[in-house]
Structures are given as structure tokens and as C-alpha cells.
Amino acid sequence: MSKDVPVVATVEELRAYVRARRSLGERIGLVPTMGALHAGHLSLVEAARREAERVVVTIFVNPKQFGPSEDFARYPRTLAADLGSLAGVAADLAFAPSVEEIYPPGFATTVTQQGPATAGLDDRFRPSHFDGVATVVTKLLNQAQADVAVFGEKDYQQLLVIRRLARDLDIGTKIVGAPTLREADGLAMSSRNVYLSQDERARAPQLHVALSEAARRILAGDDIGKVMDEGRAALAAAGFDVDYFEARHAETLAPIARREEGPMRLLAAARLGATRLIDNMAA
Fold first, then answer.
1. pTM value?
2. Where, in this chain's numbering, is ATP bound (predicted)?
3. 249 is catalytic
4. Which of 166, 211, 245, 279 could cysteine-pair with 232, CB 3.0–4.6 Å?
């Protein structure tokens, strides 16, 4: 029988736990989440377990990464169910702070980036998003002082933002990217998938299909610009409102027109109704 996962709500308690485990020579893995956990999140816990003896999972819906017209108020908050899921993968500790614990009265500091945070992808449609991500992740890495932190590749631009901030700010935590977990029909797992209507859910895998087809054609030598234009058009014909469907350099997110320019990542964001889906794929 799986044991209940202890929960702490303050930075002091989190640091006390980390100090105690470190005194025993154990490495600490960190998995930052906003809760509403699904199998994709649990795969991050398992990836962290391969890197460390103890795994801490943070559950915090970060208000600073939501724009004024986004879904902060209705973002699913399912702490009891999340703790049950974490018990099933033997997470060692959950850190579930309040907004006031993370951003106490008078909080006045923001971490702002250039580089991958200003690549003209998600930042073009969510201008303050990566400032909010960079700020909260910097705080969580500092609070936990973990040996390794695991983030999903589904949020690929975010992963590069976090890797860059860790390098630039001399944060000692190793940042690990874990592969995207998918439903049987290819849809990338996401907490926001619950917002899809039955019809939208049936169409949603077309985002993965479009990326897969684009990757296949590019690897076969087709013109990258033409392939991406046609993929964009196919998604629009399937009822998606496309924010972007782009071929970018996998390490810098700079636009890329020829395979010889470096490793490539295809990235997409599109809306079905009120739900915004993102996905990406190596090519």
C-alpha cells in the first residue's frame, strides 16, 4: 500500500526537509508543477527519481504567469487528488505554498530574460508569461536548493528559458528535460485538456499529426518554409486558430530555414474553442 505524501506549506519547512535529507548524503530532485496532475507529471517524478534519492514536488498555481485574460481563476486545483497521485509514484514530499508565502506583502522583484524568452513564440501571445515563469522558478530553485530539477519538454520554450536562467544566475541545480507523454491518439498530456468539449477533444490530436507530418517531410528533404505553411493551413482547415507553427533552432529558438543551420525543433500553439494547446517535436 502506498504511503501518504507529507505536505509542507512554508519555505522554512521545505528547507528543513532538504537539510535533513542532505545530512544523510541523499540527493534531492525537484519537480515544479501547478497541480492538476496527470500521467505526464508523474513521469517527471519518475525521471527525478532516476537522478536523486528524494523527490520533492511543488504544487503552486503561479498568478504571475497568467495574463489578465487567461484562466488563472478557473485553472484546476485538485490538491487531494494530486497527493493521491504522488503517493502512487512514491514522491517524498509535496510543497504546496500559499500565494502569500511565495509573494509576501511588498514583494517587488521580477526576473526578466531576453534570449529564448523573446523568441517570438509564446512570448508574442503571452507577453508577461515568461517573466512570471522565470521569477517563480528562480524562487523555487533557491528555496529547495535541489541537486536536480525536472521539467517537461512539452513546454519546450519554457524549458530553454529555465536552462538559461539557471546558467545566467549561477544556480547550481541541474535542469533536466523529460520527454512529452501523450495520450494513445498522440495528444500531448496537459491539465488544460479537461477544458476541451467532446468534439474539440476528437480534433485535438490533429496538432500532433500536423507536427509529425511536417517532421517527416522535412527529414525527407522538402522545403521547410513550404512544409510549415502547409501545416499551418491544414490546422486552420481542421478548425484550429493557429498562434504559431514554426521551425526553430533547437538550442536558441532562432528561425531556421535549412537543416544545415543546426538541430531543429518544430513548435506549435493553437486554440480549439477557448482551449490553447501547445506541442513540439524534433525534426
1. 0.95
2. 34-41, 152-155, 181, 189-192
3. no
4. 245
